[in-house]
Each structure stands twice: as structure tokens, then as C-alpha cells.
Amino acid sequence: MKKEIIDIALDEFGTREIVGQQDNPEVLKYFDGTGFDGRTLKDETAWCAAFVNWVLQKAGFQGSGKLNARSFLEVGEATESPEKGDIVVLWRNSPDDWRGHVGFYVRESQDHIYVLGGNQGNEVSIKKYPKSRLLQYRMPC
Hints:
- By secondary structure, the chain is of the alpha+beta class.
- It contains three helices and six strands; from the N terminus they run αααββββββ.
- The protein has helices spanning about 1-10, 25-30, 50-60; strands at about 75-80, 85-90, 100-110, 110-115, 125-130, 135-140.
- Strands 1-6-2-3-4-5 form a six-stranded antiparallel β-sheet.
- A hairpin with a 3-residue loop joins strand 3 and strand 4.
- It is globular, with a radius of gyration of 14 Å.
């Protein structure tokens, strides 16, 4: 099932925001598909959590149902040995700040975690993050 998560997320690879007044309907579908009204939101709205919720839902898993990244600290089960498709929750600004980032585990190196996620450089992409920013790995259930 985790393979499906990665496959669904990769099918969205390269989906990006549109600069200016126009919004990309492909980004807005992540909001619409998880119970938020994409007509009232812009593609510039932080959408990493909407993307993860949308992918999890498409793969048959429960998401957080919220638009903040740290809400995924309550999704699934914590793991110290992540596998491709597990959830990665990272802090933003500081470990104590309410903001964060969320995506899917791809792989890691000694110092970095490679994350497949939305709103990474304003698009669905794979980006590396320092391991020092990790809050938790979560296995979807």
C-alpha cells in the first residue's frame, strides 16, 4: 500500500503554482479533495498538508483532515525506521514554532532526508532537508 502512496504522489510530480492572479486548478484540487473549498483558497496558500491528505485519501489511508503540517504528528504510528511512502514531519523556523512541513519519505543520506511533497519550491517535487529538522517519521495506517 505504501507503494501506492508514492505512485499517486509521483503522478502529481511537477504540479506547480501559477504566479499572479490565476490559480492552478491542479493545486486547488488538493484542497477540494480533502474537504476544503479550493474556490476560497489560492494556490499560494501553504498546501503541503493538503497534498499529503489528498494522496493518503486516494491511497485509502486516513489523513489529518487539517491544513497544518504538524497535524500529521497524530496520523498513523511513529517509526524510527521509515520506509518509502511513510510520512515525514519537519519543523520550520524552530522546533518549537507551530509551523512545519510534511511530505513522504523517499530515502535518506547521512545528513539529509529526501522528501516527496507538495509546495516544495511551489511545486510537487523531491527535495532534501537536513535531518536536524526532523520532528517525526509516521507510518500511515
